[in-house]
Amino acid sequence: MPLTLESIRQDFPLIAGRPDLVYLDSTASSQKPQAVIEAMSRFYRESYANVHRGAYSLSLAATDAYEQARHTLARFIGAEPEEVIFVRNTTEALNLVAYAWGLHNLREDDEILLTEMEHHANLVPWHLVARRTGARIKAIPVTPEGRLELAALDELLTERVRVVSLVHMSNVLGTVNPVVEVARRAKAVGALVVVDGAQSAPHLPVDVKALGADFFAFSGHKMCGPTGAGVLWGRAEVLQDLPPFLGGGDMILEVHLDRSTYAKPPQRFEAGTPPIAEAIALGAAAEYLMGVGMERVWQHDRALLEHCLARLDAELPEVRTFGPRGEDRGGVVAFSLGDLHAHDVACALDQHGIAVRAGHHCAQPLHRKLGLASTARASFYLYTTFEEVDRFVEGLKQVREFFKDWL
Amino acid sequence: MSLLEELYKEILLRHYKRPLNFGVLENPTVRQPGVNPSCGDSLELELRLEDGRIAEAAWKGQGCAISMASASLMSELIKGQTLPQALELARKFKAMVVEGAEPAPELGDLRALAGVHKLHARVKCATLAWNALEEALKP
Ligand SMILES: Cc1ncc(COP(=O)(O)O)c(C=O)c1O
Questions:
Q1: How far apart are alpha carbons A235 and A330 in whole angstroms?
Q2: Which of A61, A170, A252, A288 measures 20 to 30 Å from B36, CA to CA?
């Protein structure tokens, strides 16, 4: 059967079962296809055991399934399986890099270069490490259109910069940043390059080798997978010498009472019992997305975005949207309605069955830059329809009408 | 009446557009910030306590209609109250919006916020100023 939007929607039980609901918050977390739910449930029903626990065949089968998922995720981002570390989510992946790499490599007056559009997950870990090492934090500014101010790189990228960590696709503006160019220039001054792929991995084709980065972090739950499993990809040469982040079982070669030696990557970075069922289900999610085709997922998001922006521009002059206009933007629409607070708007939309997020979306510095405490945000994914975007626009018109005395 | 109509009443609109006691006091005896970390709404409450009473109250902040109107109405209601009275009002207000208790007559115009109880996501907005008040009056 050819894949159609309707057949894709049928793959998602929550979407198929709730025709009343317009779910426009996939940027926060996506819905799950039956294939993922079934993969997780089947593992628990048929082959559950802990992994890497030697002799008995049930554990060997579980280990195989877990390692198979690692291979699938590697294929999903164009990496080698040994470079794929299973973590809980993007946040944990970025903390791993900040602690394991940052604590050992950053010195006083070294510089950490971030951007003004980062999620708190790519800010706070660096704050913690900067405090302990005496390194300083700088940020690439964001232009009024919502793009990185690349012209500022000349001045910012000094020899002092030891690491550049940036978001691939912004969860507020939708901007897809020119990571290849930033990475190339960062490499020229010898800096490590870390990419927050929390939004790019779910929404566009990613080839980590082509990005030119050293680390790439993403969460399973935003790409049709379960909560509790995500990935940190690290370039093999960098992982080779990287000390562990967490210590415990499964990550060692040999342990004495007062010292230990560590396993090779990726095991070195997977201390303790991992999220086995979640990683296996994340493998199923990656298979599902590759089956649809990531280019198709991206084009669908893009088409919905253009349709939405065109209607908002034409029909709702009171709505202000944020983010660049152009090909370098995914299906995210952060907006405000007059001076109304995002909460009031989102709550009113919810009364029409339309789920959008309101708040700072874990990007307070960006909102400060925009001069707003919060925005409302609609975001799209492979199961979102044009009709849903239309319902969103019509819903906003009703909200405008309801609040006409408040505007 | 829809849940929205039930909540966004005329009285809230008035306080949202022209909040009362918005600003700072000349000689506050307590200054208490309040934040809602999940949405970024924040305010700062100032009180001048005199002989065990709230002689004056002022606040400033930014947030949604619910949190701003709640702060405005609260600042008006607590003026002149003794500390135990003010804490009792906080308890009654929270019982109304958190637990859905029958609105107490002493809450006056704040009873307009009773509908918040049915919009679960907004309970934190309505209680922002009240949490700051309780914090401020802690011994
Ligand atoms: C750009 C970006 N980075 C990081 C994160 C953090 O992801 P998680 O909460 O799964 O760790 C998110 C999720 O909201 C995100 O959108």
A1: 26
A2: A170
